[in-house]
Amino acid sequence: MRTTPRYNVALAIGVGILSSAGAGFVATDTLDASFGYPLRALAVLATLITTVLWVAGDQHPYPVIGLANYVTAARAALVALAASVLGQPTSSEILWALVALTVVASALDGVDGWVARQTAMTSEFGARFDMETDALLILVLSALVWQHDKAGIWVLLCGLMRYGFVAVGCLLPWLAQPLRSTWRGKAVAVSQVLGLAAALTPIVPVPLSNLVAACALATLAWSFTIDVRWLSRQSSAPGLD
Hints:
Elements: H1 10-30, H2 37-56, H3 67-83, H4 92-118, H5 124-147, H6 156-171, H7 183-200, H8 206-235
């Protein structure tokens, strides 16, 4: 039976907000970011957390938030910092900072799940928080790669494919069924983040960045095709086996 302890996530949310705001103000001073940068980061983080609470806020059955969700909140703060650069003029220093931020966020990606298992505090809320943070990071990176002319507008498909999958699932319920957890899926998610970060790196020339981004997109499309076929077989959807 699911409970509704939404108040339990307040402390983790506070950690994420303070981390995002503090890092945003540091970036404003050290990287010559615009004055509104910390405010944009806070807005992105608030939107992400509100979305997660809306869709999975009643799926955290423990009396405390748990260390794993603090880790995810810190990753969410890093993603918000990256997202706040979108549409803004940037320098090589900022791009390098974004790459470093992405590497840290990627390194922490497996930590929250491991901590949740070690502390026996796994939950659907934590899994959804982790998933939405990853999805937003990939969307942000794909948009940054396009913004800086490292690949064509097609690179946005790397970030939009998952959201499109969810949207289609609202029309086709068999697509909205839970997916199995596989090493293939985890590896592809990591490859998206690292591949797009590599394409964004200032020292990677445009022809090579196009190739890296194209490989990332092809890998993601391959993985989604496998998942769709698996869901089709599970539901025996006519004409899709």
